[in-house]
Amino acid sequence: MELDDFFALIHPAIAVVIVFPLIGIVTHRAWQVRQRRLQLANGEKSKIPPIVGSEHVEIGNWLSIGVVGAAILGMAYPIFSRFLKNDTFAKDPLRAFWVTAMFMITTATFTFLFKVKIKTWRNIFAAATAIGLLLIGAQPEVFRRDNEWFFSHYYYGVAAAILMIFSVAITQEIYRDKQNRWRYIHIILNCLALLLFVGQGMTGARDLLSIPYSWQKEHLRQCDSKTRTCPPKAITSFVGDR
Ligand code: HEM
Ligand code: HEM
């Protein structure tokens, strides 16, 4: 396997090995938190230990780091591999510098989100991280699938990442709000996030299927995706190379 292909696999591998198991754990804890709260509210005794709440939040923080990290990595690979291929650092140094700075600033604001306790600063760092992701995603190197945005790995991924950032930002509010409004907002938004994660699994697997090994690209470039045909020579040389 070429080095280029290896780098292309880092993002999907991290998503499958780290992010998706975390989604399972966080969702299970979320279910337990809810069951326990409803049982206690009904005056029943609960067999679920009280620690599930803090475990949900602790692993939830890791999940949001995983999802935002996966989104950053998912965009870093196409952007920097194309920058190197097209010599963008020499031809368009201003944009190359600005995009590199955006990666660093977004990572920094996301780190600060976990460090600060004051609500205003949490909101500022959460908003800055979300804007950073959108600015990085606006680069022409990122394949956004704008004409099929409703089944786009990019739009689902960035939306899920922003929902995770929002969950971290409102953690204190969920605990403080005695009327549980923030709790219900959190549940509704994160049920949507769960659907987006299912979509990420499907669209990610689809996109992997459509990206060939680097040695195949030359041959497959001759194929026409509209008519779904390849010139006979391309097919022969493709099969012959395997
Ligand atoms: C897959 C993603 C997630 C889902 C489906 C989810 C869902 C839930 C559910 C159902 C509850 C219980 C609500 C109730 O008491 O009825 C809950 C509680 C909570 N969640 Fe999440 N959540 C997710 C991720 C996160 C993340 C990333 C954070 C932030 C770190 C977070 C922070 C909280 C907090 C602070 C509570 C209250 C816990 C308590 O009462 O002790 N959640 N969540
Ligand atoms: C929560 C999990 C995930 C998030 C937040 C996420 C996010 C992203 C983002 C924002 C991009 C850049 C936009 C794009 O090229 O579409 C991307 C690219 C990609 N992702 Fe994911 N992704 C996740 C899971 C997965 C999974 C499970 C797979 C495959 C099994 C996958 C495979 C890919 C592939 C193949 C690319 C294209 C990279 C390229 O353009 O060369 N992703 N991802």
From TrEMBL:
- Coiled-coil spans in chain: none
> Which Pfam families would you find in this protein's record?
DUF4079 (PF13301)
Q: Give TM regions.
A: 6-27, 62-84, 96-114, 121-138, 150-170, 182-202
Asked if the keyword Transmembrane belongs to this entry, the reply reads: yes
The UniProt entry, under InterPro entries, shows: DUF4079
**Keyword Iron in record:** no
Q: Which domain of life is it from?
A: Bacteria
Keywords from UniProt, A to Z, are: Membrane, Transmembrane, Transmembrane helix
Protein's UniProt name: DUF4079 domain-containing protein
Which organism is this entry from?
Answer: Pseudanabaena cinerea FACHB-1277
Record lineage: Bacteria, Bacillati, Cyanobacteriota, Cyanophyceae, Pseudanabaenales
